[in-house]
Write a structure and sequence with these properties.
Elements: H1 41-62, H2 71-99, H3 107-140, H4 149-179
Helix pairs in contact: 1-2, 1-4, 2-3, 2-4, 3-4
Length: about 180
């Protein structure tokens, strides 16, 4: 048999490294906030981009005289009203957090934002889809001269835009919640 060398492990004592001057006073390293998260400028812009189309959708739908004729349109008004109130309240919270330079990366806060975004986005999408179906039906039946088809289409489109703007907020909050 050949004499083959075998690796040997020799433990080496690691000497402790003394902290340098000022390292103790330095705050711990924190990851940067991802833009779009609560308490960031991107989050503030996302909340504003959710609020404005939702407010336009509610305003356009409520100014029509016959939106109560279909349950889907009433549902759209309720869902988008909830979306606009939710987005406005979170816009105010984000603006306050930016003004006082406070982080909103608390687990409970992110969980509340995630659940709220999930509920409001689901309601808005469902109501916008139902309203789109009723609007297409009214168009196909040739009843646009009696109804306000253009207003219904505008309100439905604004609801979809508002839902589309809520999606990044929900995904970022959910991601933050999952990695927290």
């Amino acid at each position: 048999m050949m004499n083959v060398s075998r690796p040997a492990i020799h433990p080496v004592d690691a000497l402790p490294v003394a902290p340098t001057a000022g390292a103790i006073d330095r705050p711990p390293v924190r990851m940067k906030d991802v833009q779009g998260m609560p308490g960031t400028t991107g989050g503030l812009i996302l909340r504003l981009s959710q609020f404005v189309p939702a407010l336009i959708s509610v305003s356009v739908m409520v100014t029509t005289s016959d939106f109560r004729s279909a349950t889907a349109f009433c549902c759209l008004v309720l869902a988008v009203s909830l979306q606009s109130l939710w987005s406005l309240s979170l816009f105010i919270i984000d603006a306050y957090a930016l003004l006082v330079r406070r982080s909103l990366r608390n687990h409970s806060v992110v969980q509340c934002f995630t659940i709220g975004d999930g509920v409001t986005s689901t309601l808005t999408f469902a109501a916008a889809s139902a309203s789109a179906g009723i609007t297409v039906l009214i168009n196909d039946l040739g009843q646009c001269n009696v109804n306000h088809c253009t207003r219904f289409e505008t309100a439905t489109a604004m609801a979809f835009i508002s839902w589309f703007a809520v999606s990044p907020s929900f995904i970022l909050n959910f991601w933050s919640l999952a990695t927290h």
